[in-house]
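Two proteins, back to back. First:
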Amino acid sequence: MANFELTVPAMGEGIIEVTLIRWFVKVGDKVEQDQPLVEIATDKVDSEVSAPVSGTLSRIFYHEGEVPQIGQVLAILSNEEEAGAVPTEHLDEIVHRTPELKMPVPGYLKQTALPDEETILTPYIRFLARDRDITLTELKALSREVKGQKITRDDLNQYIANGRPFRNSSITRSPGSEISVADGFVYQPGEQDRVVEMDRTRRYIARHMVQSKRISPHVTSAVEVDVTALVNWRELHKDSFYRKNGIKLTYTPLIVQAVVSALKKFPGINISVVGESVVHKKDINIGIATALPDGNLIVPVIKNADRYHWESLASQLAELTHRAKNKELRSDEVRGGTFSITNMGPYNNVWGTPIINQPEAAILAVGAIQKKPGVVFMDGQPTIGVRDLVVLSLTYDHRAIDGAMGGAFLNQIGNNLESMVAEIQSTSG
């Protein structure tokens, strides 16, 4: 009997586990190739895993609410007409390859108790709480409502229907109470301080940022760029662009094009550092940091950005940003980036030192465009005029990118932006 493993797919850099939300099929069901079988979730997106072949679902290893890791086996498919038990030696091989894997038993594999509480949380309740951004503080308060019994799905649903009354509650700690942090460090908040648990997205961002700083020695360079011609061109064309395309003309697609052009000249930036090896990326995939309505951040990726004209990039950016803010991105749209851009201009920040989005090797921060006095030449003579200036700051991984390359690459982006209007006019005829 030919058996095929249904595994947890890669979900993006830094993601090591997923939560299984639900199965669409059950053991014994016949399925077709590419038929969605199971829904999984990460801190960023929800995804469906489809059947690699047609056959019969003969065994399931993980159930709703459980948390398998990337690459672990979710189920076994048999392509025979009648599915039998998977051979014992095959199961041993699976368990050996993924030692964390446990064979399913009735109910959930493990349960945990709330700190300092007797209330038991099943993995399914922990999943539901994470999925709805219900914090540990809220669960503690809810546990007192159910008087130490198991919190059920009905309890959570009723709590949400009641408007989550404990959502903004604080943790009042008696004198001497401490919060364990890391590496043995503890913090003791004041008696009237309000301690709020991070939601799941913010926890993911926090872990990812700490990991990046531990992995890469960060260096940041900055350059000031005169974008007066670009600002004037945008003001002249933004209305006609909106009428033609139905989207606003922003500077972002133009910046993406400037970055792509620079990456072609400096392929040593479009890399990943893996141990003591450098992986040179063939594709140029640009991640755009996008603020979400809840204050968190996500980085949708424009794949093969070097294949598109800036107008096409504008359309893709508008679509990705819209779906990001509505939590409609697919998992493949937030992974595979080779270089990232973050825009600090909307908050009038002049410049900053962004943290590298691992496993990329560099990230560009774009500051607010400001009008300042600057030197211009009239009839060959220098004079002072009002100019539109922007600061670009590049953070890069000093393990593989030295200051000379990083500085030259950043300068090239600036040159590309300063000459972009002339390029646009020449290509548009």
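And the second protein:
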Amino acid sequence: MELLRLATAGSVDDGKSTLIGRLLYDSKSIFEDQLESIEETSAARGDEHVNLALLTDGLRAEREQGITIDVAHRYFATPKRKFIIADTPGHIQYTRNMVTGASTANLAIILIDARKGILEQSKRHSFIASLLQIPHLVLAVNKMDLVDYSQEVFDKIRKDYTAFASKLDIGDLTFIPLSALKGDNVVDRSANMSWYEGSTLLHHLEDVHIASDRNMVDARFPVQYVIRPQSEKLPDYRGYAGTVAGGILRKGDDVVALPSGFASKVAKIEQAGQEIDEACAPMAVTVSLEDELDISRGDMLCRANNQATPTQDIEAMVCWMSEASQLQEGAKLAIKHTTRWARTIVKDLRYKLDINTLSRDESATSLTLNEIGRIKLRTTQPLLADKYSRNHITGSFILVDENTNVTVGAGMIINTK
């Protein structure tokens, strides 16, 4: 079955964890002992209803405060599709967690409290979803039960958000009025909102078209590991293991190994010990070539007439994730791009972005925790990169403090010159 990765976001107390709990509960995706546990915890806390948010709020601090702090992942399936849900925190100080949780999502659900309308955090998370170029966005207007299921309230929020979203790069936008607490329009259609003629949330998640979201044109295969068993049965075996980052690789394809530029043909593709005819993103496979080339971890196989760009100069949008340090011009860091490590220096901080107003501060000299800016980097060895808009895997990277080995930044490549 097809896998859909989705992330929830929104302001504090908009009901993200409750919505996921309702999805799991109404789709019969939780075990009886889990339900008994949250029923007991809800009773002990004095809650009027079974608190479905407890299904995702796993940390003790989260349960005590009633907020989401870390990114919680939950898995469930319906007869149509498998799902991985990332429940991301709403507090402004956890912006980096939201970036992490949403970075691999096909779809983002941004919740808005029907009573409060569009808040700064709603705009912040919408911008981050746009920055990460998540293909599909659902604006879930929650707590409709608290505004008497008013169509006027929903229509006003939809109008206001549409005006705001016109400034962002959002391809597919859907509006759904719902009540996560009562279950209206989550899994089952709501009898209280007969004026709404669209899909329920689960129906939309099951049917949204994601097959064309991946780049199936540009073949990219970053080599993670070179397999040389040196056994009597396979004395001359040499395979290159990794995950296909884009496009399709087929047996007999002409390929080029970067950065060396040597050409060969695909002799064999294997997955889990079985030979297959072709591999596409995001399959993990082993590729064998007809020629013995000097290929190692960090190299990349591409098509001869469609290659990634080897570059030591990149321009990118970066979210700074470190509490202990700041990003400043001249900073020296380690960079990990696909399977390749290198060292890099920050050549220029072009501007810091105010993601509430979308204004650019070109006088900024540093980025601190959770801030986003546009920077120029110079690396010690070429990265085999594409623009993030073309390929999310070969167009992204992380920055690491070499002294502490802590990930301090996550970046999306804009230019490769």
